[in-house]
Amino acid sequence: MGGVDVGGDGGKKRATNSEVNMIPFIDLLMCTISFLLLTAVWVTNSRINADAQVPGPPDPNQELTPQTPEKVLNLHIAENDFGLVWKQGATVVSEVRVPKVPVEIKDGARVLVRYPELAKKIDEEWKQQGGHRDPSDKKLDQAILHTDNRLPFKEVIAVLDALYSPKREMKMPDGQVKSIPAFNMTFSVR
């Protein structure tokens, strides 16, 4: 067993030679070193590489091509009607109001709500204003659903069904062409 000789004063008293057990100290030291090494590895693996791109004058050899923002359909749900607003950035491209006329469909014990006029108008608007119609285009048109937090769930589902009614063709990676909804929808709750 490892020990440390602390010496003695050689005189009157007996020697104060006592053993200090070094094994727990070595175990503690090894655990501390392994903890530090593992922490160093985790810290270097969790870093995000970032390039510092300092703002300044653009490269004179590079042409600047301004990108126009895509059109986005904003669907506002009001008390008595729906507002279909196409925006390109902050600019309103077109705005259409559709009366809120629900059609109730009985499905066994359930009563479903549908808005066929809204679905028809969204389809017409997408055919006029939509930007992604080519089957090889993998991107979908964006739609933002603006609704009040108190809107009943069955009405939200009815509006979503109307919003997903316009279909477009998309070429899949395996070569097949499938019919998919034309919009990718996002919620915006007031």
UniProtKB/TrEMBL annotation:
> What's a BP term from Gene Ontology annotated to this protein?
protein transport
Q: Which InterPro entries does the entry link to?
A: ExbD (IPR003400)
Q: Does the keyword Transmembrane helix apply?
A: yes
The Gene Ontology terms for molecular function here are: transmembrane transporter activity
Q: What is the protein's membrane topology class?
A: Single-pass membrane protein; Single-pass type II membrane protein
Alphabetically list the UniProt keywords. Answer: Cell membrane, Membrane, Protein transport, Transmembrane, Transmembrane helix, Transport
Record flagged with keyword Protein transport: yes
Residue ranges spanning the membrane: these are 22-43
Where is the protein found, in the record's own terms?
Cell membrane
GO cellular component terms?
Answer: plasma membrane
The domain of life for this entry's organism is Bacteria
Tell me its family.
Belongs to the ExbD/TolR family.
Output this protein's name.
Biopolymer transporter
